[in-house]
Write a structure and sequence with these properties.
This protein is about 30% helix and about 45% strand. The protein has about 190 residues and is of the alpha+beta class. The chain has one domain: Super Roll (Bactericidal permeability-increasing protein, domain 1), CATH 3.15.10.40.
Length: about 190
């Protein structure tokens, strides 16, 4: 018997659960789809490492983020290792950037997207204090602008069609210690 990956098993299990519901959604109440910490980390890490040039002065390279779930705030935190190469003086600075965000569902393309993106900290070792303050403000502005509404998970249309046929729609998204819980609520008549 072929071995089924955990991810495939989760998808098939979710689909089977949705399809297997035979009673009216309003009688059954809310349902939940779980996106594991590992699955979300894998999806967020896909485009990394990334390099971005800032005003022809710095080349900034960010590595794949480490995730931290903050259930008490219903947010996800990330920390990226980064290096900034100063093109004027040919120096390289290494450090980290911490970003946190909430999540929202976009029904037009069936995605979970970042919302309320906030840069929590930027730290580059060896950078003079004045430059550190400037880079922190500039980095916060760029990161918040570039990451706003960024898609981190895409539902398959067939998964949500099944839920729709059974009288469910995507509700709130809850951050837990294990990952994300996407609540499917009975549609309101």
């Amino acid at each position: 018997m072929p071995e089924i990956s955990r991810r495939s098993a989760l998808r098939w299990g979710t689909l089977a659960t949705l399809v297997g519901l035979t009673a009216c959604a309003s009688m059954l109440g809310a349902r939940t789809v779980v996106i594991s910490k590992e699955e979300l980390a894998s999806k967020i890490a896909k485009p990394f490492p990334v390099t971005h040039r800032l005003m022809d002065l710095l080349d900034v390279k960010a590595q794949a983020p480490r995730l931290r779930f903050m259930p008490q705030e219903n947010r996800v935190g990330t920390e990226f290792d980064l290096s900034a190469s100063d093109l004027l003086f040919n120096r390289t600075y290494n450090g980290t950037i911490g970003v946190s965000f909430g999540l929202r569902f976009e029904p037009k393309d069936l995605t979970l997207r970042l919302t309320n993106v906030k840069v929590d900290q930027i730290s580059l070792a060896g950078l003079p204090a004045a430059a550190q303050r400037y880079l922190t403000k500039l980095g916060a502005w760029i990161a918040e602008d570039q990451l706003r509404d960024y898609p981190v998970h895409h539902f398959k249309p067939e998964d949500l069609r099944s839920a729709d046929r059974l009288g469910y729609e995507v509700g709130d998204i809850k951050v837990t210690d294990q990952g994300l819980e996407v609540h499917l609520n009975p549609k309101k008549s």
